[in-house]
Design goal:
Number of strands: 0
Shape: globular
Number of helices: 18
Helix content: over 70%
Structural class: mainly alpha
Distance between the termini: 34 Å
Largest sheet: none
Oligomer: single chain
């Protein structure tokens, strides 16, 4: 088992980072493609349906945020313990992490039953939009166990460096989802046309299938982590280690949900078209940021392993190469958003009003993509080092502390309307990146600063 993980402390950094990141980049791109295709199919039902799914996004994102956040905590604990050669603690972190995930599944079922309608009714008074949003949201919340357990296993496999396994399974789940979308939404192959409910069922079906595939993969061979019920004990140190990274990471990932909810309330004062624009942007943002998140997921276990092994030099190199790679990827996303926003929006059957509003939004927001690489990579580095607090500070600056007050100021006090919301995005990214650079430069006397 030791041999399975020594490569993270021995192989040359850049080839190692590529071998860990490229599978995740490919799988993230496929997942992003699914998000885009899902929205395209829903848009065929009309703007009201697209608006309904956009309103459901914050609660749907809450599932992923909690799952990924706790998963990052599990993965960080596993890689650090493997780096320090503590196999027992690594196994225990995986088992306890799965047990905590089951508890979260129960909480989301309760949220789906009791919170869905009161939450969504705060953002629309259109009965058709509200009903579609409630139907969609209840399905994804009450059947969220597939997403939560799938992501927990994904992070366990990533923590031991098994990136190809996660790539294959994540891809399989997305393909299942994409295939089921038109069948269930429009009623093909003898199925009834289920509209937005069909989109939700296709989503949870893909997630449950991915979870089952992880179980099958784990049972097929021996990995560097063993899951045994004997490790399911109350270990305060391990639970604290998971949550000290997991809770800040979950909050960080929940910030877009809170941000969207607040910005929706600001934008609805001008027009519901801007709500649809914001929903489309966040779908596109997923597509643009997912390759960079692949780098992020590839670097985390390498940083954690080498941090556990006490090799700060390798940690610095990993952060440096990750940052440079992310900048290149974000440049690729920036160019089409600046030059061809109309072509992108045409994929969503945008009418003239939606097209005009969307072109302005994409061009303004995309100016912050490049600089956001610093905040993204540095926040991920702090997570891998087991410091969730600094990661949360960076993310709060990126997606809340700057963006929300500035949006209110520019839209109302400055009278800029929706444009004020779009401008707040790149300014928030710039402030967050400056803070991230300072935090890592001063953390442990600059031991992990890449430059």
């Amino acid at each position: 088992m030791e041999k399975n993980n020594n490569f993270m402390g021995a192989r040359p950094i850049f080839p190692l980072l590529l071998s860990m990141s490229v599978p995740m980049m490919l799988s993230m791109l496929i997942q992003s493609l699914y998000n885009i295709i899902d929205s395209i199919y829903v848009s065929r039902l009309g703007t009201h349906a697209l608006t309904a799914v956009s309103l459901a996004y914050p609660l749907q994102n809450a599932i992923v945020s909690v799952a990924v956040g706790i998963g990052v905590g599990i993965s960080s604990a596993i890689s650090i313990h493997l780096g320090s050669k503590n196999q027992e603690k690594a196994n225990r972190a995986a088992v306890i992490g799965l047990a905590l995930t089951v508890i979260h599944c129960i909480l989301f079922v309760l949220a789906g039953i009791f919170i869905t309608r009161p939450f969504l009714s705060m953002f629309t008074d259109n009965p058709a939009v509200l009903e579609d949003a409630c139907v969609y949201t209840r399905i994804v919340l009450c059947l969220s166990f597939g997403a939560l357990l799938q992501i927990a296993f994904e992070k366990i496999f990533q923590g031991i460096g098994e990136m190809k396994v996660t790539m294959y399974i994540l891809t399989a789940g997305c393909v299942i989802n994409i295939l089921l979308d038109p069948i269930l939404i429009f009623g093909l192959l003898g199925f009834p046309a289920m509209g937005v409910a069909g989109a939700a069922i296709a989503t949870v079906a893909g997630q449950i299938c991915s979870f089952l595939l992880y179980i099958a993969a784990y049972r097929r061979k021996r990995y560097a982590i063993h899951l045994h019920l004997s490790d399911l004990v109350f270990d305060r140190a391990v639970i604290t280690q998971i949550y000290s990274v997991g809770i800040p990471s979950s909050i960080m990932l929940l910030l877009p949900s809170a941000l969207i909810s607040i910005l929706n309330s600001i934008l609805t004062a001008f027009s519901e078209v801007y709500v649809a624009v914001l929903g489309i942007y966040f779908k596109l943002q997923t597509f643009i940021y997912m390759p960079a998140n692949g780098i992020l997921q590839g670097m985390r276990p390498i940083i954690g392993y080498n941090y556990g092994a006490g090799d700060s030099g390798r940690v610095r190199k990993v952060i440096r190469y990750s940052l440079l790679s992310a900048v290149c990827l974000m440049l690729i996303g920036t160019v089409p958003a600046l030059l061809f926003p109309g072509h992108i929006l045409s994929l969503f059957e945008a009418d003239s009003e939606l097209m005009d509003a969307g072109i302005t939004a994409l061009r303004v927001i995309s100016t912050g993509f490049l600089v956001s690489s610093v905040g993204l990579i540095y926040a991920g580095a702090f997570e891998a080092l087991g410091n969730g607090r600094n990661s949360l500070i960076i993310s709060l600056l990126r997606q809340f502390i700057i963006t929300v007050p500035l949006s209110l100021l520019l839209t109302r006090a400055a009278g800029m309307g929706a444009l004020g919301v779009w401008i707040s995005f790149p300014i928030g990214e710039l402030c967050a990146s400056a803070a991230a650079f300072f935090l890592l430069k001063t953390y442990e006397k600059g031991a992990f600063s890449p430059f």
